[in-house]
Design goal:
2 domains, 0% strand
Length: 185
């Protein structure tokens, strides 16, 4: 055996130990070895096709991220959404969002909901949108807004509370926008 053949055989043994190539079985016939070799080539071809598919998918994902960034920068405005108002109202009054938009009408739940209606109307939302946002109809939103307007007449503490809630809404929206921008980076 020549020196080159020794190096070649040592190299193949090393690759076999590392799992890069299957060990050569002395019991396999030439035809079986050829079938094994062909199956490895088929497997390698499948892997290359999968890598091509993955590359194509990565390219598609990159394009989609660009589109999302483009539209997110335009749509992530700092105007509070009705869902933001619901979240802050729930947090401020120690309720869950599900309770705020739920069907219960007790004073401890109806009052925070009415404050939400009032704030949403001050933000410029239509009655139908406010009603949908709170899981009610527009007449409920209108009635709740009127109730809070009446209570505000002789209650400066309520006015201060509403201003405090508005500040919390602004902070909530700022966090939401910042989180959305960070997610797109």
């Amino acid at each position: 055996m020549t020196l080159v053949e020794q190096f070649h055989s040592a190299h193949k043994a090393r690759l076999s130990r590392l799992g890069a190539i299957p060990p050569r079985s002395p019991n396999l016939s030439g035809r079986q070895q050829e079938e094994q070799r062909q199956s490895l080539l088929d497997l390698q071809a499948k892997c290359e096709r999968q890598q091509d598919i993955i590359s194509n998918l990565n390219a598609i994902i990159a394009k989609q991220r660009l589109v999302i960034r483009k539209f997110a920068d335009q749509t992530e405005i700092t105007t509070p959404r009705i869902a933001d108002v619901v979240a802050v109202i729930a947090e401020h009054y120690g309720l869950t969002k599900a309770i705020v938009v739920g069907t219960q009408r007790t004073e401890g739940i109806a009052f925070p909901r009415q404050v939400g209606y009032f704030i949403c109307r001050e933000l410029g939302y239509a009655w139908h949108a406010i009603g949908r946002g709170f899981g009610k109809d527009h007449s409920s939103a209108l009635h709740g807004n009127q109730k809070i307007s009446q209570k505000l007449q002789g209650n400066p503490a309520l006015a201060l509370e509403i201003e405090d809630i508005k500040t919390k809404i602004d902070n909530y929206v700022a966090r939401r926008v910042e989180t959305a921008k960070a997610a797109l980076e």
